[in-house]
Structure formats: structure tokens, C-alpha cells
């Protein structure tokens, strides 16, 4: 498996405004890219990684892919100069209906919002060789939408991105890394080649695992993520024995009346804790 590293912002943002640690400071990001370069890692494009996945071929040792979700402006101003310094590239997934505006979706609105790339800036990235993909129109929880609403978010974002930027859009990324078999079928039917998810559920070309890279990563934890050990842990957890163990544990919790929190519950708790800590 080729590790697909998932970033959001490369910026200096306080914990109060970034309680989930999605923003990696520029100095830390440069240290991570320097580590990869010094240790002989090879940066593949997402299409190259997908081709390896489909064909079952083996990539060169120490290969990785870089992706950025949401399409923040600091990807261009902060991340790209660092990537160019080391000869790396990336795929940027854009929230197409919000381009050129501050982010406005759940958890990234108000004081926690960040400026998103404009169409002009996105075109510039494409001319520099960066691959652009869709992250829907408005960044919803797709699994909470009906088929028609979800398909509109998935397909219309691709159509608009292709029309506005005059390029082929083949790749998709699920907001909040949330998907299921129904949503993945909709993504495939919308004409995408592959889709990036999070680090759970069975691996497929429309559910490619990614490794989250966060502000609290040490250079050691980052090295483990880039080495592929994180994906090996995910593979073990998502194997038949691993899933059986998780299902039995879930049933045990249910008998005890312990409810497993949803993603929205977890994020809400994290945001509330951080707000109280900063108060």
C-alpha cells in the first residue's frame, strides 16, 4: 500500500480556532517534507498511486502521495513553496461552491473559517502541475443526505469544476472522510476514477485509505505514518478478524446500554472541550 497523506491547512492557527488540530504550522510541514526528502522517499501523484492500486503492481519503496482537503488559500501561499523546494506535488480537493470565500461548513465556520482558493488561484495551481479534485459543492455529511441530494453534491461539483477551470476532474474526496457503500456507488456513477476517504472501512478504489497528518504529530509519529505502518494497522483493524472483534465489542457495549458516539458527537465534544479550555 502506498501511504496517502491527508492534510487540510498549512498555517499558524491557535488551538482555540483549530481545536481538531487540522492546521499544521509551516515550519512543522517543512520539517516533515525535509524528512521525506532526506530519507529517499518518492512523491507519487494520486493517478500514479491509483494505477498501482488497480493493476496490483508494486510501487518503488518509500513512495507516498500528498493530498489537501478543502482547498484553503494557504495551500498555495504556504505549502506549495515548500513542496516545490523538495520537488514534491499534491492533489487538492476543492469545495467547489465556496471557492474564493471563507469556509462556512460545520466546524469550520465563523471565527474558525479560513479563506479558500479562488478560481484564478486554482487555475494557477493546475498550470503548476497540481491535480485538482472535488470535495463536493458545500461540504455536507453525505451519508445524511438522500440519494438525489448527495448525487447533486457529487456530480454537480465535478461538472462545475470542469467548466470553470477547463480541466478533467477524476478524483473525489469525502467530506469529514464519511462514506458508505451507497455514497461510493454514487461517486462511481458520477464518472470519477477514484475517491479518497479516511482510515476506516474496507479498502477499495472508491474508498482509498488516507493517513491524517495533524498539528500534534511528532516527527516520530509522522515517520511511522509515512512508512506505511499506519496503513498496516488499518489493514489489520479492517481485516475479517479485526472487524469481527469490533462488532462483538459493539454488541457488548449495546447490551450494557453504552451508545457509540457518532462522528458529529465526537467532533462536538472536541470543539466544546477546546472552547472551555480557552475560556
Sheet-strand content, in percent, reads 5-15%
Question: What is the global morphology?
Answer: globular
- Kindly state the percentage of residues in helix: 40-55%
Structural class comes to alpha/beta
CATH topology (level 3) name of the largest domain = TIM Barrel
CATH superfamily of the largest domain: Glycoside hydrolase/deacetylase
Q: What does the largest sheet look like?
A: 6 strands, parallel
CATH class of the largest domain: Alpha Beta
The helix tally amounts to: 10
Query: Which consecutive residue ranges, at least 5 long each, have pLDDT under 50?
Result: none
Question: Could you tell me the number of beta strands?
Answer: 10
Compute the separation of the termini in Å: 43 Å
| CATH architecture assignment name of the largest domain | Alpha-Beta Barrel
Mean pLDDT: 88
Radius of gyration: 18 Å
> How many domains in all?
2
Order of helices and strands: EEEHEHEHEHEHEHEEHHHH
Report on the structure:
By secondary structure, the chain is of the alpha/beta class. It has two domains: about 5-240, Glycoside hydrolase/deacetylase (TIM Barrel), CATH 3.20.20.370; about 240-279, no CATH class. About 45% of the residues lie in helices and about 10% in strands. It is built from ten helices and ten strands. It has helices at about 25-40, 45-55, 75-85, 120-125, 145-165, 180-190, 220-225, 230-240, 240-255, 265-279, and strands at about 5, 10, 25, 40-45, 65-70, 90-95, 130-135, 170-175, 195, 210. The strands form three sheets. Strands 1, 4, 5, 6, 7 and 10 form a six-stranded parallel sheet that branches. Strands 2-3 form a two-stranded parallel sheet. Strands 8-9 form a two-stranded parallel sheet. Strand 5 (about 65-70), helix 3 (about 75-85) and strand 6 form a beta-alpha-beta unit. The model has no long low-confidence stretch (mean pLDDT about 90).
Amino acid at each position: 500500500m502506498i501511504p496517502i497523506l491527508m492534510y487540510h491547512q498549512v498555517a499558524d492557527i491557535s488551538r482555540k480556532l483549530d481545536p481538531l488540530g487540522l492546521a499544521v504550522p509551516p515550519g512543522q510541514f517543512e520539517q516533515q517534507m525535509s524528512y521525506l526528502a532526506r530519507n529517499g522517499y518518492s512523491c507519487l501523484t494520486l493517478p500514479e498511486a491509483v494505477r498501482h492500486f488497480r493493476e496490483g503492481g508494486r510501487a518503488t519503496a518509500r513512495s507516498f502521495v500528498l493530498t489537501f482537503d478543502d482547498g484553503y488559500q494557504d495551500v498555495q501561499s504556504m505549502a506549495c513553496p515548500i513542496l516545490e523546494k523538495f520537488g514534491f506535488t499534491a492533489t487538492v480537493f476543492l469545495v467547489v461552491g465556496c471557492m474564493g470565500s471563507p469556509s462556512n461548513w460545520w466546524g469550520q465556520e465563523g471565527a474558525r473559517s479560513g479563506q479558500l482558493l479562488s478560481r484564478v488561484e486554482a487555475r494557477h495551481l493546475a498550470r503548476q502541475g497540481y491535480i485538482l479534485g472535488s470535495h463536493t459543492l458545500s461540504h455536507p455529511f453525505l451519508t445524511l443526505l438522500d440519494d438525489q441530494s448527495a448525487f447533486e453534491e457529487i456530480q454537480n461539483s465535478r461538472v462545475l469544476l470542469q467548466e470553470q477551470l477547463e480541466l478533467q476532474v477524476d478524483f473525489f474526496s469525502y467530506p469529514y472522510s464519511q462514506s458508505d457503500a451507497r455514497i461510493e456507488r454514487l461517486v462511481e456513477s458520477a464518472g470519477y476514477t477514484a475517491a479518497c476517504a479516511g482510515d476506516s472501512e474496507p479498502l477499495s478504489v472508491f474508498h482509498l485509505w488516507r493517513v491524517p497528518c495533524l498539528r500534534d504529530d511528532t516527527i516520530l509519529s509522522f515517520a511511522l505514518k509515512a512508512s506505511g505502518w499506519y496503513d498496516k494497522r488499518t489493514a489489520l483493524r479492517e481485516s475479517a478478524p479485526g472487524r469481527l472483534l469490533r462488532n462483538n465489542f459493539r454488541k457488548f457495549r449495546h447490551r450494557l446500554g453504552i451508545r457509540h458516539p457518532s462522528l458529529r458527537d465526537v467532533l462536538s465534544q472536541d470543539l466544546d472541550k477546546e472552547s472551555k479550555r480557552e475560556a
